[in-house]
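ok trying again, last paste got cut off:
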Amino acid sequence: MKIGELARRSGLSAHTIRYYERIGLLPYADRDRSSQRDYDASILVWIEFLGKLKTTGMPIREMLRYAALREQGSGTESERRTQLERHREQVRARVAELNACLLVLDTKIAGYGDAEKRIDDYDAELFQRRQHSSRTRQARPR
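nice, full thing came through this time. structure:
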């Protein structure tokens, strides 16, 4: 597949694909007769995996390290696994940190809801007092 189709199917721009190829995240593509890049569809799985690593905050230098180990093939599985396990622990720590932040936000939002309810209750009580007060004044003879 040509770079335009790969860009469309992967969600990356052609510029990003060329950049990833240049720095070593993507293997160099085969070239067709007119010297245009011709990618195998299997590259989509690798690009999707790189996207997950990026989304989870793995720095490019670590992605490059993993890609280099992958390129070396068998015999590097242990190193790749160790690298992914370390990254997984960092992701778990970040998820825990985000969950703590989410709890703070939920508590703050609930506080605003409670404040609105207190204001509504106060307004309703004030309205009832005024209603009661106006009825009492009208009932008294002068």
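cool. The two ends are 96 Å apart (CA to CA). The helical segments are 3-10, 14-23, 43-55, 60-72, 77-139.
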